[in-house]
Amino acid sequence: MVISADMSAQILRLHETERWRVGTIARQLHVHRDTVRRVLAQAGLSPPAALLRPSRVDPFRPFILQTLAKFPTLTAARLFDMVHERGYRGSPDHFRHLVASLRPRPAAEAYLRLRTLPGEQAQVDWGHFGYLQIGRARRPLMAFVMVLSYSRRIFLRFFLDARMDSFLRGHVEAFAAYGGCARVLLYDNLKSAVLERIGDAVRFNPELLKFATHHRFEPRPVAVARGNEKGRVERSIRYIRESFFAAREFADLDDLNAQARRWCEGLASDRRWPEDGSLSVRQAFEAERASLLALPAQEYPLGERVAVQVGKTPYVRFDLNDYSVPHTHVRRTLAVLADPECVRVFDGAAEIARHARSYDAGAQIEDAAHIDALVQHKRRSRGHRGVDRLSRAVPSASVLLARAAERGENLGSITAALLRLLDRYGASALQAAIDSALAQGVPHPNAVRLALERAREEQGLPPPTALHLSEEVARRDAPVRSHALANYDRIVPADEGEQP
């Protein structure tokens, strides 16, 4: 707290002339006790030290200090048990506060200010910025941030995940925005960069190594728990939270990224350059641009590629949603290649489906052609099964269907009508009726139905009634094999079977 010269003079007068205590001065002048002590210390004065009252813990203080020096992280609860066993009878709460004041504090560590050459280094990290609700899906909002260590130029791009494809896509867009690539890229020990680390032995993600080889930069992880080594990207993420994201409104992810791009090219580039207050970050970046590595002529192939299994229904599951495929590819393993806008499905090297990507959850994204083809296939299958059954039971039905096709009749409805007549009248009666209809030159189910009714009336039979039995009833009505009567003769004695 900064106080005026008049306040400092009044504090000194009340302390020296009126002999007021520090607490009295602070209470009457409405300032903090530490402010009063600081004014007195700057004037070379110090308040009289308060006398310490005897405490129950005084005999155990050397033991406590010695134990904490040897085990600095020992909990106060365990230390209280140890002291209690040695005769201490004070309160646990008071003891906990006492240990907090006696526990040794680690010495403050000093850091050298890191300086890099133009185009030498960039730092990369993810930042989590809450969640977005898209339909029924709650997607994480992740910010990919890259900072050039020399000029402090920031690149910012938001994604709905932190997968490897998004990680590499952020690199590509950052390199395009910079017009080049730094020679060394620093990473935290995130899984997209480092799969395993034991001491100084590091196993990089093979996808990142392939990407780095293509762009000719060196991926370099920072030491474990040493965030200061990439402090420029850490500070940039904090700067993004406070200067860009706080209280910002946006319609969707595309709108947010458009605003982020304008912010990076505007306000973030016009801020003061930390190395020289007379220059801006934009000016420092223009000087650094010529030192960046040139980008390769051939673009790196991006896209998330996963193998998917198609079940009985013609859909593949990718990222919480189902995408339709042709029905001819069910029960097969296919490949999905996805980018932020499109989902493509491949069978080997052939692309069999393409859909706009959805970030919803549980949605079915369908191509109308896939569904129509499946419906037509099902209809043809039902028709083929009906024709096969009809032809096997009544050979003349094939001739009738051929004649009907020549006349342009609907074969599906004719087949269904003949199958119903087959179930009601039987195969032999239907055969005779079809022969009669063909002889009259009328290949139509109505002519067959009239022939069947005429034959029934001539024979004096009642109208037929179709009876459909369930599978349970059909099992109960299964034929039973009768036993030979000689088996029953063995049960009756011979004398009982003779006539008197």
Automatic annotation (TrEMBL):
<dbReference type="InterPro" id="IPR036397">
    <property type="entry name" value="RNaseH_sf"/>
</dbReference>
<protein>
    <submittedName>
        <fullName>IS21 family transposase</fullName>
    </submittedName>
</protein>
<dbReference type="InterPro" id="IPR001584">
    <property type="entry name" value="Integrase_cat-core"/>
</dbReference>
<dbReference type="Pfam" id="PF22483">
    <property type="entry name" value="Mu-transpos_C_2"/>
</dbReference>
<feature type="domain" description="Integrase catalytic">
    <location>
        <begin position="114"/>
        <end position="289"/>
    </location>
</feature>
<dbReference type="InterPro" id="IPR012337">
    <property type="entry name" value="RNaseH-like_sf"/>
</dbReference>
<dbReference type="InterPro" id="IPR054353">
    <property type="entry name" value="IstA-like_C"/>
</dbReference>
<dbReference type="InterPro" id="IPR009057">
    <property type="entry name" value="Homeodomain-like_sf"/>
</dbReference>
<comment type="similarity">
    <text>Belongs to the transposase IS21/IS408/IS1162 family.</text>
</comment>
